């Protein structure tokens, strides 16, 4: 093992250690502000009582963190993308000023109630992409200043957290194996809750989060197994709701739509078995700014219901929803605030489609989700080029389109 001692007194930039095996001693590095290790094998860190406030040990793979003395300055510690399987007691005892701890992409399986107790100044904690199956209910009990916590992409099944936080605003539990609403005891400050891509199928136990129904403004429940959503009407202050990729039964969920959209500005109903926009018939939709109903079988005759969203800014839909219209003039004419359009095509847009839907090019941003580079001929590119020459007057936009055409032609050739 090679040993490297840093006797640096004036360095304030990021220091790189590239040897295969290193021992880094910060004993004399009183003025060092940032440290980044880019070596990939094994690292021993000692004597961290210096002036470092940002410590990057990501992608080291193996390391031993030996604390000698206090580290009263260190505020950011990145331990992500390593092979950490255990956080020993006392590891962070002297990191009294630590505010941001990143331990994502490791191999943690358990998190006891002693490893994090001394990090009272912590505001951001990222434990995502580990192998956590269980989190002790007292693990975060003393982290009263925590604002953001991510436990996403783990193996959690049931979540019971006792966290007497007064500051926690964002909790991410997405991409786990959770089969019911999380039990969050003592939390009433959360404004953003992400429990997407779990195995939640039942909301009848909504009472277990009754302390959150008034505080949550952003709720992401995409990718679950929800069929009935009427219980969500308890969240009276929702501004953003994502229910995409749930097999919702709208015949018994209309009450939720009618009673719970008073404050909604963003609603995602992508791939939720939606067959009609009539569910908005008796709803005031003037507050909506973003709406997605792609990957559903909605009748084009429902276009009149769409007009209720008069202040919409971002609209996402399937191309076949407007297939029977000669152009998108109706959308442009009725949605004065609309700036961003996302159109999901089942196949590559044809040359005729580009010419017919010329009004699309009046928006600030149009996102065609089909890969245009797979076109079998240059006809589509020629149609766009012809239209740009005739219609586009905005120089900045025209330059962007010319570049797009050039790249497309290169791929075709």
Q: Profile the largest sheet.
A: 16 strands, parallel
Stretches with pLDDT under 50, minimum 5 residues: 1-34, 37-51, 370-380, 382-393
CATH topology (fold) name of the domain at 220-370: Leucine-rich repeat, LRR (right-handed beta-alpha superhelix)
Structural class: alpha/beta
The backbone outline, from C-alpha atoms, is globular
* CATH H-level superfamily title of the domain at 220-370: Ribonuclease Inhibitor
Strand order of the largest sheet: 2-4-6-8-9-11-13-15-17-18-19-20-21-22-23-24
Q: Could you tell me the strand content as a percent range?
A: 15-25%
Task: Describe the structure concisely for a colleague.
The protein is α/β, with parallel strands linked by helices and 413 residues long. The protein has 6 helices and 24 strands. It holds the Pfam family LRR_8.
């Amino acid at each position: 093992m090679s040993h490297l001692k840093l006797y640096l007194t004036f360095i304030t930039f990021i220091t790189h250690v590239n040897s295969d095996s290193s021992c880094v001693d910060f004993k004399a590095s009183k003025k060092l502000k940032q440290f980044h290790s880019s070596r990939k094998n094994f690292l021993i860190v000692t004597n961290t009582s210096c002036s470092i406030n940002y410590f990057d040990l990501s992608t080291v793979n193996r390391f031993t963190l030996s604390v000698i003395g206090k580290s009263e300055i260190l505020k950011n510690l990145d331990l992500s993308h390593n092979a950490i399987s255990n956080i020993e007691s006392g590891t962070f005892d002297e990191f009294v000023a630590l505010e941001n701890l990143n331990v994502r992409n490791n191999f943690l399986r358990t998190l006891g109630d002693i490893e994090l107790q001394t990090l009272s100044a912590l505001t951001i904690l990222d434990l995502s992409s580990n192998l956590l199956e269980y989190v002790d209910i007292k693990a975060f009990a003393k982290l009263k200043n925590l604002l953001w916590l991510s436990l996403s992409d783990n193996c959690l099944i049931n979540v019971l957290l006792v966290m007497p936080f007064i500051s926690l605003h964002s909790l991410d539990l997405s991409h786990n194996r959770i089969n019911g609403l999380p039990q969050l005891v003592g939390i009433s400050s959360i404004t953003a809750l992400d429990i997407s891509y779990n195995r939640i199928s039942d909301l009848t136990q909504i009472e277990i989060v009754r302390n959150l129904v008034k505080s949550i403004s952003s709720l992401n429940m995409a990718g679950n197994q929800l069929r009935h959503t009427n219980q969500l009407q308890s969240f009276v202050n929702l501004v953003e709701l994502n229910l995409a990729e749930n097999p919702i039964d709208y015949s018994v969920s209309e009450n939720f739509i009618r009673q719970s959209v008073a404050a909604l500005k963003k609603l995602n109903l992508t791939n939720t078995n939606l067959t009609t926009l009539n569910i908005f018939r008796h709803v005031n939709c003037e507050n909506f700014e973003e709406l997605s109903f792609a990957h559903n079988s909605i009748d084009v005759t429902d276009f009149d219901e769409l007009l209720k969203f008069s202040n919409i800014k971002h609209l996402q839909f399937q191309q076949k929803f407007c297939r029977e219209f000669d152009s998108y003039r109706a959308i442009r004419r009725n949605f004065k605030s609309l700036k961003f359009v996302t159109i999901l095509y089942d196949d590559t847009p044809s040359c005729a489609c580009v010419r017919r839907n010329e009004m699309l090019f009046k928006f600030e941003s149009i996102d065609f989700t089909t890969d245009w580079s797979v076109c079998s001929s240059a006809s589509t590119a020629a149609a766009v080029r012809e239209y740009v020459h005739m219609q586009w007057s905005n120089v900045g936009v025209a330059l962007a389109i010319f570049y797009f055409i050039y790249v497309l032609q290169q791929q075709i050739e």
